[in-house]
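ok so for the tutorial part 2 we go from a plain amino acid sequence to predicted structure tokens. step 1 is just haveing the sequence, like this:
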Amino acid sequence: MNILEQEFYGRNTLKVAKDLLGKYLIHEVNGHIIGGKIVETEAYCGITDKGAHVYGGKKTLRTMPLYGQEGTIYLYSIYGMYLCLNAITEKEGEPQGVLIRAIEPLIGLDFMAIKRNGKDYKQLLNKEVLNLTSGPSKLCMALDITKSLNNTLFWGGEMYIAEKDENLEALFEINEIVCGKITKSKRVGIDYAQEARDYLYRFYYEDNPYVSKKDKVKLLDK
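step 2 — the prediction. this is what the tokens look like for a chain of 222 residues:
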């Protein structure tokens, strides 16, 4: 597979956030290959970003992966039970990253359906299908992403991000949705972040039904 290497992540965080759209998040676990197309991301731009965990240069045990090398996996918990998946960007010591908010499920559909709903994919109602991976914690549950992956790397291990090639496409169990325009908008759930709550740091495919929330501000070229 055409797995993204470290150089992809070692760039401007906003550019990485946009460029991750249309790439494929894959997790190989217990003999299963599970994954889908990334359709929604958010950028968090380090110590000057009031929406970021490291605003003001904050360093804690929880945030240490943010200071790691580009391409590091950063997983954190919300509400004490749900995980959110991030890819660290820029360079080591520059704590910036991209939250992967939603994917379009394509590989391992029964695995995901059982993880999320306790039944096979073909038994799901349409609303359950669209709810499989349409949010940061939903996709972590569907892909069986656990805290053991925190502070590991997005290459050379069981979870990675890849570009589509023939080998990857051969694993698709359903036809993927053709995506067009990319939208940028405000990030979700950071009303506390003063002026940073208005930054247009969220990117998503306007016409993809797996996006967690559509709040159009401006269309960007694909």
